[in-house]
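Box S2. Input/output pair 1.
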Amino acid sequence: MTIAAAEARALDLAAGFLDAIRDGSLDAPGVTRASYGAGERLAHARAREAAEGLGLEIRVDPIGTLSMTLPGTDRSLPAGIIGSHADSVPHGGNFDGAAGVAMGLAVAARLRHLDRRLDRDLTVLAIRAEEMVWFPANYLGSRAAFGLLPREAPDTLRRADSGRSLAEHMAEEGFDPDFIRQGRASLDAARIAWFLEPHIEQGPVLVEAGLPAGIVTGIRGSLRHRNCRAIGQDAHAGGAPRRNRRDAVIAAARLVAGLDDLWTAEEAAGADLVCTIGEFCTDATRHAPTRVPGEVRFTLDIRSEDVATLARAEAWLAQAATEAQARNGVAIDYGPALHVPPALMDPRLRAALGAAAAEAGIPTMPIASGGGHDCATFAGQGVPSAMLFIRNDGGSHNPAEAMEMDDFAAAFRIAAGAVERFG
């Protein structure tokens, strides 16, 4: 079979998989594939059917991770892995995560149709439970596969929509929560040569640049505070003079404006940084047009590829709290901090992706990943890891996701060429 014919058949398989899981998980206005739920189950079943059609070796671990392997010529070597997750947010788009599973199947199909084998096994991975909206744990499925979840997680984590435990949902899907309770692992970093996660871009950078694909430099780490409070004192809007006010809104607004100034300065200096105030509100049971607000609740999400940049932002927050107390008499309580370290992508793998793109004549750009991905789990375990972003209009985590199959095809040619270079 010619390369062109093999690639056409591989892309048809990927498109068919994506169409099938969309049709099977429609939940207007988007799709819903809940972690350890019906939609995720369907996506794994369709992936398995495609893999069986290619004659791949199939394995499902006790937590539901689906491994689909094309044997290499030397099976003693650590395997190469390509894949992503198959769950989605509620009423989300069809491509977040699933495009990476489709890409893995397409790369394996191309090799199979060309009757080629890599030196090492190539495993296409469909990972469980990546979307944190369902269970309150980062990268639940990949961390569980590496044995990294707390042993009590099956019994303490509850799914947002049902209120039922992870253990109950796992058992309902035919999996074994004792695997996590016992601290067992199905993935061994020492037996993984590399991990590649293709994924749609979740922002507009590639669309703005007019490029079909981007080579990820790293996954931003984050500093998150979900329960911030600016605590002042309620007062009468007409009776309290300025000098006596402890206005929580004024103090919190100054903090937000100052954070934006910090972001501007860091960006001008060449630092990678993004800052988000996702929630900002007074108490609906207490606020009124004639009351000086004594409390504001807000959230903070600060991300960067660079640990030093995150540290500077954290120091700035401490100083801003001191200034709010001195200037406005308002205490800033950020509440607990959640630190997630950055995950930098492997330089050798990035170079191989770049070389494959150049050979295929496909323009790309380096790009940071603002969202978290299972790839961060692999990188954190010392596995050489890489990500390939696919242009996607309309953003992510919403029904407007609009990855074009022409862009998928361009990224597929990069991924297929890079996998043969990874060694």
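Box S3. Input/output pair 2.
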Amino acid sequence: MEMKKRISLELSNRKPAEVVELVVDNCRSSDGEVEGLTEEFSELEILSMVNIGLTSLSKLPSLPKLRKLEVSDNTISGGLDTLAEKCPNLTYLNLSGNKIKELSAIEVLQNLKNLTSLDLYSCEVSALEEYRDGVFELLPQLTFLDGYDQEDNEVPDSEADNDDEDEAGPPGVDDDDDDEDDDEDEGSEGEEEEVGLSYLMKDGIQDEEDDGDYVEEEEEDEEEEDEDGGL
């Protein structure tokens, strides 16, 4: 399927300005250039063009909000200088499986000041001696190269998820607090029920005592009337 047609299908009934993520993997670029993608995709943040026959990114439109660009398994060999101008906010770039042979080909990426992660896996340049040290020296803004930082620590699966976990706090803490609160509430309710029951019982006992006193008074009155009558 041609790239233009694939983009039309991905759009469906949406307008280009409504698209935040676009995936057109495994379609075909007829001349090795980006086709069917225009500056109307102004809100695009994630773009994936894996294995579509790209040889160049020179016709990539201006995408000011693009953060992640996947162009692995193509035949791109250079011409990356256009990225800094058209995608200034790019933070992740995957060039794995392309025809990048020399470090000089990626030197222009120095102008991508926000670029923190770069993948060059399976490119010829990755076979060079001192490849990793050379890339990190050439691109000091990078944090991760081919999924690892300079100390060979693997990139987290999702840094956003880690942030959420930090905000959530240690697991179980809040639950314990809630359980304690529930126990306290149940205890309070139990005490209130006991107090209320005791109060009712006391009232019942007092009523019985009052009734008994009343009966005794009636009996005394009757005895006095009998004595008076006998006299």
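Caption for Box S3: The radius of gyration is 40 Å. The longest helix spans residues 173-230.
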